[in-house]
Design goal:
Length: 142
C-alpha cells in the first residue's frame, strides 16, 4: 500500500479510488438535506429499501458499507472457506490478497505478464478453476 500511495508517475493511479477531491462548499445543495446516515449501524433505510426493491429482495438483505474494501471483506467472508480454492490475479491489489489469505483458502494465482500487456489469459483461468474453486478475483481496470 505504501508503494501504491506514494508513486505519482504512473499513467493510471491506483492509490485512490479514482475520485478526485472536491470541496463540499461548491456543491449546489444544502448539506443538511444530504444527511443519509441512519439511526442504526445498518445504513440509510430509504436507500436500502430502494436498492432492495430494485433487486427484488427484502431490505434486510441489503447491507450498507463504508467502502469497497469493507464490501470486499464481507463478500469474501461469506464465500471463502478454509481449504477451498480462491483464484486471484498476480499482481493484485494488496488488501484483496490479505483478506483472502485471512480466511485460509487455497489461494491460486493467475499471472498477468508485462510481455502480454498485462492481460489475463482466459485459457489459464479455466485451467485453474476446479470444483473446489469458490472465488475468482480479477481487476477489470487492469
Amino acid at each position: 500500500m505504501h508503494w501504491s500511495k506514494t508513486q505519482r508517475s504512473r499513467a493510471v493511479q491506483s492509490r485512490t479510488s479514482g475520485v478526485a477531491s472536491f470541496p463540499l462548499r461548491e456543491l449546489p445543495i444544502n448539506l443538511k438535506e444530504l444527511e443519509i446516515n441512519g439511526d442504526d449501524s445498518y445504513g440509510y433505510a430509504p436507500l436500502q429499501q430502494a436498492i432492495a426493491a430494485h433487486h427484488g429482495v427484502a431490505p434486510d438483505c441489503v447491507v450498507d458499507l463504508p467502502g469497497t474494501s469493507m464490501a470486499n471483506h464481507l463478500a469474501m467472508a461469506a464465500i471463502i472457506e478454509p481449504g477451498r480454492r480462491s483464484l486471484i490475479e498476480h499482481p493484485a491489489y494488496g488488501p484483496i490478497l490479505d483478506i483472502a489469505q485471512y480466511f485460509k483458502p487455497n489461494v491460486k494465482r493467475v499471472q498477468r505478464a508485462a510481455e502480454n500487456g498485462w492481460t489475463i489469459d482466459p485459457t489459464e483461468v479455466r485451467r485453474c478453476i476446479t470444483p473446489k474453486t469458490r472465488l475468482v478475483v480479477m481487476d477489470q481496470s487492469s
